[in-house]
Amino acid sequence: MIRGIRGATTVSVDDCQEILTNTETLLRKIIEVNQLEADQVASIFISATNDMKTAFPAKALRQIEGFTFVPIMCMQELEIEGGLERCIRVMMHVNTSVPQQEVQHVYFEEAVKLRPDLVKE
């Protein structure tokens, strides 16, 4: 069965290294807490708000050993008045038998405001 795993983070400024570092940290944590292997991941969508122009956040996945062949797509998030700035969102599609309510979603930095009900301390 395919399940969606969500996550998000933010950066303090539009800086290539910070975007890649924060995205890699987020992806690694999603992989870790959900005990995922690359073969389980069907695809990953990553969106970024339009105030980030220095890096493709999806490039961060290539730093994670074993994930070279996982399809990944980067896109621009909708521009919404009052929306969270400098935000990177992840939707990971994984093959798993884990029940929906046991999937571990991950939110870091200012992105914890998006889903405080899902944030683990």
Features:
single chain; 121 residues; alpha/beta; 60s Ribosomal Protein L30, Chain: A; five-stranded mixed β-sheet; 5 strands; aromatic amino acid biosynthesis; Chorismate_mutase_AroH; isomerase
Summarize the structure.
This protein is of the alpha/beta class and 121 residues long.
Describe this structure in words.
The chain is an alpha/beta fold. It has one domain (2-114): RutC-like (60s Ribosomal Protein L30, Chain: A). 15% of the residues lie in helices and 27% in strands. It has one helix and five strands; from the N terminus they run βαββββ. The longest helix has 18 residues, at 16-33. The radius of gyration is 14 Å and the shape is globular. The model has no long low-confidence stretch (mean pLDDT 95). Prephenate binds at residues 6, 89, 107. GO terms for molecular function: chorismate mutase activity. It catalyses: chorismate = prephenate.
Figure out the total of helices.
1
Helix-strand pattern: EHEEEE
Distance between the termini: 28 Å
CATH architecture: 2-Layer Sandwich
Beta strand % = 25-35%
Oligomer: single chain
The tally of beta strands, per DSSP, is: 5
Helix content: 10-25%
Rg is 14 Å
- CATH class reads Alpha Beta
Strand order of the largest sheet: 3-2-4-1-5
Spans of at least 5 consecutive residues whose pLDDT stays below 50 are none
